Amino acid sequence: MARPRTPRTAPAPEGPARTGPVNVLLIGAGGREHAIGWKLKQAKRCGKLHFAPGNGGTRELGVNVDLPFEPVNTKHADAIDHYCRDHGIGLVVIGPEDPLCAGLADRLAAPGRAVFGPVAEAARLEGDKAWAKELMRGALIPTADSKTFTRAEPALAWAEARETPVVVKAAGLARGKGVMVTDSPEEAVAAVDQLMNRRAFGEAGETVIIEERLSGQEVSVLALVDGQNIRVLDPAQDHKAVGEGDTGPNTGGMGAYCPTPVIDEKTLRTVEREVLVRAVDALRRGGVTFRGVLYAGMMLTAGGPKTLEFNTRFGDPETQPLMMRLKGDLLELMLATCGGRLDEVDLDWDPRVCVGVVVCAGGYPGDYRKGDPIGGIDDAEEDPDVKVFHAGTKIDRDGLLVTAGGRVLCVCALAGDLK
Ligand code: AMP
Ligand code: GLY
Fold first, then answer.
1. Engineering a disulfide at 105: which of 117, 193, 385, 402 sits with its beta carbon 3.0 to 4.6 angstroms away?
2. How many helices (H) and strands (E) does the chain have?
């Protein structure tokens, strides 16, 4: 009897010409997009840079355009597609997770245009934590033991009966805030109630995962994946708590540094083999080709590295220190990722360490004020090893740089050692 065929990697789409300038459209408004744009601008073949919507920093690198994409619908995708045609865009880079999970990469695929970021079926690794858990179990990827619930009563009963601490997670996208680390059954029950009954994160909490609470150092292992080849980037560590000394509520990320000594080379290779390769292979067995950034959020436990989550994009703020240290041509790296040619390009790093510290608006991650003037960036950047990436900033009607979001700036500096 014929054996069932293993699905193969889908052929890489034909991107822009291999010579001549490439115009780029970057989707997103954060520090991550400013950092990617800054690095792309240094690329040999970088043509004109367009940012949708960009921020106060990106406008110095190119043009900011108002192309709505939240949430992505057919009209939005068509408008972006038209914009790309009108402006000869050869590469679209999709920064945030929401448009990826909504299928923007699928919809923007066109001859002569590379789209950096996975298709929706692959971005599901980030957008549906319950599905990702299933995939991890099936592929023997080390992760915390967990149980998934689609109804509140059994979830509440399970949470109440736990004798060791658990973490309660909304399965859907919640801007990094749908994870509740609890200390007691009472807290776990309250977390389930918040997510499932009160719908604190809307539909994202329709399905909830309750998993064992692990302990250990956390590390972000990001890799470029071209469908076939995996190139692991230098490991980074981000810090999520808003306050000094890791106190206060979790945020999207208050700072990051790279490389991090918390993970050694051997453990990094274990993560590559047992987490990244297995995830990409499991997707492929399901007929899905992953192209873009695969980001494994790892915890280094006494029982070995365990996967907390997958993201299917560059991290924010990890990207800011990563871009500061990346040597070589980001445009060619991205085109090689889209084109299935990652084995042909160099990936080198500045040996120095980079630390990025996020400056946020008072009150963040709760309510915060907008419109406050920002100063001092030029002074900081007089040091050639310092770069200030913008996130929630804009130019107001008087031409002043003002705050426009919770995370405002990410101040990055390179030095010989971490201290
Ligand atoms: P996630 O978005 O799933 O990475 O979760 C956000 C944060 O919650 C992580 O960075 C960890 O600090 C924490 N976390 C998630 N899962 C666990 C777990 N199983 N044990 C302990 N902490 C966790
Ligand atoms: N820094 C964490 C994230 O980008 O999800």
1. 117
2. 13, 22
pTM of the full structure: 0.96
Whether cis (ω within 30° of 0) applies to the bond prior to 249 is: no
Per-residue pLDDT, 11: 86
What pLDDT, in 10s, does the model give residues 182-236? 999 999 999 999 999 999 999 999 999 999 999 999 999 999 999 999 999 999 9
* Ligand 2 near 253 CB (within 6 A): yes
**Whole-number Å distance between alpha carbons of 326 and 346:** 11
Rounded distance from Cα 209 to ligand 1 centre (Å): 12
Summary mean pLDDT of the chain: 95
- CA 248–ligand 1 middle distance (angstroms): 15
Q: If you average pLDDT over residues 234-263, what whole number do you get?
A: 92
Question: What's 286's DSSP letter?
Answer: T
Q: Closest by alpha carbon to 415, among 369, 347, 362, 353? A: 353
Q: Give the ligand at the shortest distance from the Cα of 165.
A: 1
> For 96-244, where are the alpha helices, taking DSSP H only?
97-101, 104-108, 120-127, 129-138, 152-161, 185-192
Beta strand ranges found along 340-406 (DSSP E): 348-349, 353-360, 386-390, 393-395, 401-403
Map tokens 């408004």 to a residue.
29
Q: Whose CA is nearest to atom 16 of ligand 1?
A: 308
Query: Residue 244, exposed/middle/buried by CB under 10 A (0-12, 13-18, 19+)?
Result: exposed
343 vs 326: CA distance, rounded Å: 17
* Ligand 2 binding pocket includes 316 (Cβ within 6 Å): yes
Q: Which residues line ligand 1 (CB under 6 A)?
A: 144, 167, 169, 176, 179, 181, 211, 213-214, 218, 240, 297, 308-309
In 129-270, which ranges are E strands?
146-149, 166-170, 179-181, 208-212, 217-226, 230-232, 237-243, 247-258
* DSSP tag of 214: P
